[in-house]
Specification:
With 281 residues, this protein is an alpha/beta fold. The protein has two domains: 172 residues, HUPs (Rossmann fold); 94 residues, Pantoate--beta-alanine Ligase, Chain: A,domain 2, CATH 3.30.1300.10. It contains ten helices and nine strands. The strands form two sheets. A six-stranded parallel sheet has the order 1-4-3-2-5-6, sandwiched between helices. It has a three-stranded antiparallel sheet with strand order 7-8-9. A hairpin with a 2-residue loop joins strand 8 and strand 9. The relative contact order is 0.13. Bound molecules: adenosine monophosphate. The site of adenosine monophosphate has 17 residues, from helix 2 and strand 5.
């Protein structure tokens, strides 16, 4: 497996793969891999491409009081895990390679960046859209794989691709969960054992919403309130937001008449966890 530290070396590697007639399948990440990341890599490989993963903890998408410094990192472990699922190259740049002195440009997907996490993390999605567009320009993949765990991010990237006329197919991948339902996340390492147990309330409450929806409930406020009530009953949980929004526009809705998403962000101690589920296809 190739470890590529510079943009030039990525371009060279990609050229060689293309010359061999192979499509490029790309998985952008911040590292500290878990089964969620690996599921994207396996899918990228199963789809028959040369698989390249990026590992970059992007400073631009962290707020001044967020966890940039303590975000978990273990390159050697990531390297081995990626290799075990058939990844052929890792782009692992230094911050100065991505943002050299004098760097200025930011990308903003205006409306989709406003609600949900955009409200509590100002500038976050500008950081995400900017780094992903840069990575797309560096790697020039045929397909790129994103987890539905970060549903708003996925919608923003889909919009970015459309608006910027990128010829990249975005492949959404299902949320991978622990046995007790907690969505896998690099940030789960922040949880104390008590918080880890308490955090199972998130998936339970989303499952409740899905069951209510399946039984015919279409009142978004009822679903939202029910999820929020269950989470608020957990003493270690502090709700950032719980919302039921249109799956395409991410705007709040009153009745579910088109596909919707129940989305939430909840603090457990130092960890801010997000999760979501679709209501309707
Ligand atoms: P991150 O390293 O957290 O930026 O995540 C990199 C990619 O992995 C993103 O597309 C995430 O949506 C995806 N991802 C993270 N956690 C999960 C999960 N539990 N299930 C599926 N995909 C995930």
């Amino acid at each position: 497996m190739e470890i590529l530290r510079t943009i030039d070396s990525v371009r060279q590697w990609v050229r060689a793969q293309r010359a061999a007639g192979r499509p490029i399948h790309f998985v952008p990440t911040m590292g500290y891999f878990h089964e969620g990341h690996l599921s994207l890599m396996r899918r990228a490989r199963a789809d028959g491409g040369a698989v390249i993963v990026s590992i970059f903890v992007n400073p631009l998408q962290f707020g001044p009081r967020e966890d940039l410094e303590r975000y978990p990192r273990d390159f050697e472990r990531d390297r081995q895990m990626a290799e075990s699922v058939g990844v052929e190259a890792i782009f692992y740049p230094e911050v100065a390679e991505m943002y050299p002195a004098g760097y200025q440009t930011e990308v903003r997907v205006k409306e989709l960046s406003k609600p949900l996490c955009g409200r509590s993390r100002p500038g976050h999605f500008e950081g995400v859209a900017t780094v992903v567009l840069k990575l797309f320009n560096i790697v020039a993949p045929d397909r790129a794989y994103f987890g539905m765990k970060d549903y708003q991010q996925l919608r923003i990237i889909q919009q970015l691709v459309r608006d910027m006329n990128l010829s990249i197919e975005i492949v959404p991948c299902p949320i991978v969960r622990e046995a007790d339902g907690l969505a896998m996340s690099s940030r789960n390492v922040y949880l104390t054992p008590e918080e880890r147990t308490a955090a199972t309330v998130l998936y339970r409450s989303l499952q409740w919403a899905q069951a209510q929806y399946a039984a015919g409930e279409r009142d978004a406020a009822q679903l939202r309130a029910g999820v929020a009530r269950q989470i608020a009953a957990e003493p270690l949980a502090r709700i950032d937001y719980v919302e039921v929004v249109d799956a395409e526009t991410l705007q709040p809705i009153e009745r579910i008449e088109r596909p919707a998403v129940a989305a939430l962000a909840v603090f457990f101690g130092k960890a801010r966890l997000i999760d979501n589920c679709l209501l309707g296809d």
